[in-house]
């Protein structure tokens, strides 16, 4: 079996941090090409979040903070290539179908290269722009072992409390998701 990333939504944060959130379970690619030839200083705040930390869902062209390594068949891989090629032609101005297909094959191959991990491994991306080029760093997130006497109600309080980061780690921009949820909840009530 082949392995590719799929979008995953562990909480509702993607629906308000991105302009368009990917649907859970979509096949995903890095999506850095969306920002090619754009000045990050001119991007809106939600576009900057996508640039910094989003995987692109192939069907919706929405963003996901996390992706999950998932097994796929060759037929599914071919369908991913065809769908992404169509998107590149229709939405991103690829010069012709052949160029769109070649670019889609390259993006899908890169996405597969990120999945050299066991199925169900979570993937995260961190991007920045250095010298006019987009640099990407990918990390894997795995569940911490739960102590035998741990209170099981507390171990599942938040998806972000029981994961460890493997790979290169740099200081990251912090987002107060709870604060955003509280602010959003207050706005919805008024």
From TrEMBL:
InterPro entries given in the database record: DUF6505
Any Pfam family: DUF6505
The name this protein goes by in its record: Uncharacterized protein
Organism: Bradyrhizobium archetypum
